[in-house]
Fold this protein.
Amino acid sequence: MPWHVALFHSLFVIATIYGLVRGGSPERIFALMSLAALILSIRVKTPYPYGFHHVEVGLFLVDLGFFFALYVLSLFSLRFWPIWMSAMQGVTVLSHAVEFAPPPTNFGYAVLEQFLSFPMLILLIVATRRHRQRLARNGTDPSWTISFARSGPPSRR
Amino acid sequence: MSEARAAFTHRPARLQQGLGWPLRLEGDRHNELGLSARLLWPFLATFGIGVAMGTLVIGGSLLSLASVAVLHLFN
């Protein structure tokens, strides 16, 4: 396994577990979404070292789906980090167009397609840490712009 | 107070609505983004990151070319 793949998987495990255990609901949803995206990416990607010699259509579709999921998350969550996450994922989606630029370069395509996963995981760790800090300071940290809780009279307890 | 002066000196509770950014308000509150801003910002930020990365790549390539040219001059 190449060193950068081992580094990515280590960072992924740390960030995902931290986000799932200590994060609020947006952080947890993002951690689950990125886990699903990683599993799907591994399934559809051409195996190393033969990948990125042509447009990876399966990978493009996974990236696009992940972008739209992040976009919806950024619309409804009361956090700013999903906006940056969806922007980074947007660049990842656009990176598939590199293969059409002359001259096609599999190295540049591979780097551009995978590089932004690292800052996204680091951002998840920072977002989870900031969530814990807000919780400690304010006692609460609202997650969503809309509430699905049914309104009704306050309970008498 | 005239209407123009009142409009000029008015300080809204929520700063920069629409394309807002998390500016600090009084106390420990921050303003929130409106729906239009949330719809737009991911695409603006995608463009920004893309331009920044493209600038870095092109700038790096030009620096590399320049360094080769300078080394060629002295060798």
